[in-house]
Amino acid sequence: MIPVQRPPAEDISRRSFYIGAVYAMWGAIATALGLPAVVYLFFPPKTRKAEEWVEIGDVSKLAPNAPVEMVFRRNRTDGWKVTSEKGTAWVVKQPDNSIVAYGPQCTHLGCAYHWEDGKNDFLCPCHSSVFSVDGKVVSGPAPRPLDRYDTKVQGTKLLLGQLRQSGENG
Amino acid sequence: MKPIRQWLEHRTGLETAIRQFLYEEIPASSGWHQVFGSVAVFLFLTQAFTGALLAFNYAPTPGDAYNSLRYILTELTGGRLIRGLHHWGASMMIVVVVLHMVQVFLYGAYKKPREATWMVGVVLLLVTLAYGLTGYLLPWDNRAYWGTVVTTRIAGQAPFLGPYMLRLMGGGGAVGVVTFARFYGLHVLLLPPATLLLIAVHVYLVRKHGVAPAPGDEVLPKQQFYPRQVFKDTVAIFAAFAILFVMAVAIRVPLEQLADPTDGSYTPRPEWYFLFLFQFLKLIPGSLEVFGSVVLPGLAVLALIMVPFFDRSRMVKVTRRTFASAVVLLGAIGWTGLTLAAVKGTPKQAEVAIDFSAPTDWMQLSPEEMAGVAYFREENCISCHAIGDRGATVGPDLTRITIHKDAAWMIQHFKRPSAMRPGSSMPPIQLNDQQLNSLAAFLLKLNPDNASALSNAPEFATQGALVYQANHCGTCHMVNNVGMKAGPPLNGLAKRQSRSWVEDHFVDPQKLSPGSFMPPYKLSPKDLENLTSYLFALPD
Predict the structure, then answer these.
(1) Closest in B74, B79, B230 to A22, CB measured
(2) Which of A50, B163, B211, B448 is the most exposed place for a label (fewest CB within 10 A)?
(3) Which of B220, B423, B236, B214 minimizes the C-alpha distance to B319?
(4) Which of A33, A39, A47, A82 to mutate to test the interface with B (most CBs of B within 10 A)?
């Protein structure tokens, strides 16, 4: 060990000033670097595009309660890139003629489900979650109903907006 | 706490190690002149930190690199600050490393037994410069691209080694994806661990031989490194950081246009600390070029490494080292002279200077809307109206789409505000119908997303659009898909024609494009400049 000499009394106050100042300055530097870093990493990017509506097809010929999988292309902003990608939606005309469009992924772990014509429900092949035609969970591990797109009908054309996550049991 | 400390100390010896480090004995003469090494280490760590943060949102391939950097600058909160810190930190690092070196040189601290410490230090200087060279390319804008083209060509001139250097840099002098990948790899994968290793060796050697004493120190009692010298080092680090932070906040680091290998009008210039070499090269006749670009700088580095062997005299007081002082002074004068000459000799950028590090929504405006921006500024609308979060709140926020009416209503409103909106305290706007139309067109397009166009549209663009409107260019030409197609569309003009061609063309269209039915335009020099700049700034 290094022998520590006992400094005279006036040196002690100077010594503690040095130490205090060192801690204060390093604290300030750490804050000035750390805070911007946290903001930079955790704040979401400023979104510059308002939500877009994508036309996905003619819904005038749909039969009530007979889901159809429709394919469309839409632009997705991914960081610094805008990618045009394929999307699908299960579109159902309800008995009251309103249109519902479900997101194509099971709410359990995201597998693609499909419509079983004979059984009249949606079946997810991964863990056998079953959804009814109105999107509600019939059986299986799925925690919540199918997610829905915002929809708008113009004439006979269906327009899709954002995919909204369905609430618990809602 | 105490048992944990004891356990840690017993198993690792950490506490003893820290104590030994902090209570290292240093000569009585140690003080402020020896702070630069610590500042350099601090700046290196800051660069590593900000560099890693940038890398989290950066795609290291040409094209994507530029777009991701724009994303960092325009869409991420704090992105501009982080990039500013990294950019200016690089410059500051060079300054501090050189100051450190000058101090050691002036004091003769490289003398026996500290020759190796000095030599490792020179290698560290070269590594610092290598960061500057490789990092320069990474924004992949015109500046980066053309600067690197010159650098690789110079490396290719090296006697014997030239062809190998070129191959190592990924191509026969062409700067492309391979060169980019190698520069990036060097910058983030190879250089940082090399720097850490070299710093470790450097500091180990400093500790092994002790901080260099001044003559007379042997009779004085030694002092401990902690806390007095640590305090001085910290003050210096804090001052350096404060300057760096202010620079990063206050001085905008521009981003130029995406690198364009076909751009014939671009004049590349190296980073400021390489300007002296650039200028030096101009003084060398062409036949001796290799001598100036490779041989002499190489010899200079060699001489720098060999300094401890040239000067083997005994340690004397710094005030008596007149020869060393003269060398430093001469070096400083030479460097300053060459750098100043280079700065003076840099032609004013012929092309349009657009700062691509800010949103460029304004480029998408039609000429009419752009002219509207000019009227908006001239009439000082912002003194009463808010635009998003900017401006006063006497009148309504003009980005609120719900208050937008049709153009006819707005023009009537501009002429007699209180007639359209009883009780309005807005003064009538004294502009003619066409001008009011422009203003209305622009305001109708305004929304919270594109409001940045108002503050970001450069003066030349708004003024150029005024000239464009006043001369009815839109009755034959198209800009951003607005206008007619009797003449060629004007987007991408910069790619097709040179600036001087366009300026001459206004004066006598038929001379330059026979068969054209465009009438000649006599524009004032200012109008001509603004209009041409505006047209050259249009997106392709």
Answers:
(1) B230
(2) A50
(3) B214
(4) A33
Reduced to 3 states (helix: H, G, I; strand: E, B; else coil), residue B481 is coil
> Is it true that domain B361-536 has CATH number 1.10.4080.10?
no
How far away is chain A from the Cα of B226, in angstroms, using its nearest Cα?
9
Residue contact A81–B230, C-beta within 8 A: no
**∠ CA(B49), CA(B51), CA(B56), 5° rounding?**
100
Q: Is A71 found in the same domain as A32? A: no
Return d(Cα B158, Cα A7) in angstroms, integer: 60
Domain regions of chain B by residue span:
22-257, 361-536
A132 pLDDT higher than 80:
yes
The contacts of residue B428 (CB under 8 Å, 6+ apart) are B414, B415, B416, B417
* pTM score, whole prediction: 0.81
Confidence tier at B298 by pLDDT (50, 70, 90): very high
Question: A93 and A70 in one domain?
Answer: yes
The reply to whether residue B49 touches residue A33, judged by beta carbons under 8 angstroms, is yes
Residues of A in Cβ contact (< 8 Å) with B71: 45, 79-80
Among 3.30.450.20, 1.20.810.10, 3.30.43.10, 1.25.40.10, what is the CATH number of B22-257? Answer: 1.20.810.10
Indicate whether this complex's ipTM tops 0.85: no
pLDDT for A169 equals: 46
Query: For B306-345, what is each residue's pLDDT tens digit?
Result: 999 999 988 888 889 999 999 999 999 999 999 999 999 8
CATH code, domain with A76 = 2.102.10.10
